[in-house]
Amino acid sequence: MNYEQTLDHLYSQLPMFSRIGAAAYKEDLHNTIAICKALDNPQHKFKSIHIAGTNGKGSTSHMLAAILQQAGYKTGLYTSPHLKDFRERIKINGEFISKEFIVDFVERTKALSESIQPSFFELTVAMAFEYFALEKVDIAIIETGLGGRLDSTNVITPILSVITNIGYDHTNILGNTLEKIAFEKAGIIKKNIPVVIGEYVDETKPVFLKKAEEEKAPIYFAQDKFNTSDLQFKLELLSLSVEDSNNRNKEIFALDLTGAYQVNNLLTVLSAEEILLQQGFIISSEAEKFALANVKKLTGLHGRWEVIQDKPIIILDVGHNENGVRQIVSQSANYILQHTDAQLHFVMGFVKDKDVDAVLQLFPKEANYYFTHSHIPRALPAEELQQKAAIYRLQGDRFENVNDALKAAKQKANEKDLIVVCGSVFLVGEVNN
């Protein structure tokens, strides 16, 4: 098979959660363990950092990867899902995995795949592990796909675990309370391995403390360690001061990831970085500052409050659950407060298995709406979304694809307006930009 045929095989022959949802989710690690064993357990041949959480784990993973590669370490990065190119999922120092390796890997594992019928995610996780091992990375950042305890990535023994936060998402699989979801995410906490918790609430902190105590894992809470001030949000730059609550040291940071939610992600990253320094990693302040100001350039991260046009301003954001959308709506509202003659335009589409009603309640009634859908089986049809939105007095037309919707928004908007495309990773991935 050539590369295109190999991708077609991966997408069509293996169950893929992003396309069909819960039917692709395997509630055990049996297949991942079997594939890794057949490959001589590559996941044990490199150091790793394991990152879970409801929101922010992608940004946190990319920030850490940027810092480590700028500090001179050969850094692997495994994330999901991808926006436009499958190879976005597996990178070393910001460079995509080669097409040749993908073709070769799928060929080598074909007989085993036919025997055990792994999911798309199970096979691609093993692909990443094999690639990082063969390329002899110094460190790899491994982002969970869904949950943690039963996630296919949870066969590694990392040097550090990170849990960004807990919110309501994938409740049909992970549970319908914050405690249950936290329990699943806490499954990445390993015996004697330090863990950083980015954010906690009253319901989740005891879950993390209990699991850490059971595993004798040192636990650190980033939100308790740092204080922030002097926040300045600009379209291309977010700057802030961060003070260590222990030693009162204060530093100024500038981020090219400008979503307001990146403040909490930054604190999580700084807490993780401190543990890496204690473990012997050498990261200069200059490397750290440069990396955080150039995450998109160093790692290729997209879709996080990403400005793709000015006049009118067009933002792409992959936020899709209640917590993520709340942040998008809040930052959009702040823009309108600063530009009182501007209007808001939301181009939106969701997948069927999200609590769309909970999310729609967060949007302002006075904004302009353009309802659409991505072209995957999980997508909620635009007509159905339009009907649901009307219940919450959100009015607008519907469109068969995101680019038609975005074109309509651009025609209606004036130069000072703000257009936000959100609701689904897959919708953002289909934007032509």
What would you call the structural class?
A: alpha/beta
Going across the major beta sheet, what is the strand order?
4-3-2-5-1-6-7-8
CATH homologous superfamily heading of the largest domain? Mur-like, catalytic domain
Task: Report the portion of residues in β strands.
Answer: 15-25%
Number of domains: 2
Task: Determine Rg (CA atoms, Å).
Answer: 21 Å
Please count the beta strands (DSSP E, at least 2 residues each): 17
Report, as a whole number of angstroms, the end-to-end distance. Answer: 30 Å
CATH fold name of the largest domain, please?
UDP-N-acetylmuramoyl-L-alanine:D-glutamate ligase
Query: What is the CATH C-level name of the largest domain?
Result: Alpha Beta
Helix content: 40-55%
Which stretches are poorly predicted, pLDDT < 50 over at least 5 residues?
17-25
Q: Mean of the pLDDT scores?
A: 93
Characterize the overall form: globular
Largest sheet: 8 strands, mixed
Second rung of CATH, namely the architecture of the largest domain: 3-Layer(aba) Sandwich
Total of helices: 19
Describe this protein's structure.
The longest helix is centred in the middle third of the chain and has 17 residues, at 262-278. Helices cover 41% and strands 17% of the residues. It has an eight-stranded mixed beta sheet, with helices on both faces. Strands 12-13-17-14-15-16 form a six-stranded mixed beta sheet, sandwiched between helices. The chain is built from 19 helices and 17 strands. 48% of the residues are buried. The model is unreliable at 17-25 (pLDDT under 50). The protein has 433 residues and is of the alpha/beta class. The protein starts with a helix and ends with a helix. Helix 4 packs across helix 12 and helix 4 (57-70) packs across helix 13. The chain has helices spanning 3-13, 17-20, 30-38, 57-70, 99-108, 110-116, 120-134, 171-174, 178-185, 205-215, 222-225, 262-278, 285-293, 295-299, 322-338, 356-360, 382-391, 402-412, 425-429, and strands at residues 48-52, 75-78, 90-92, 95-96, 139-143, 160-163, 195-197, 219-221, 226-233, 238-244, 250-255, 306-309, 313-316, 344-348, 368-371, 396-398, 418-422. The protein folds into two domains: 3-299, UDP-N-acetylmuramoyl-L-alanine:D-glutamate ligase, CATH 3.40.1190; 310-429, Mur ligase, C-terminal domain (Protein-Tyrosine Phosphatase, Chain A, Alpha-Beta Complex).
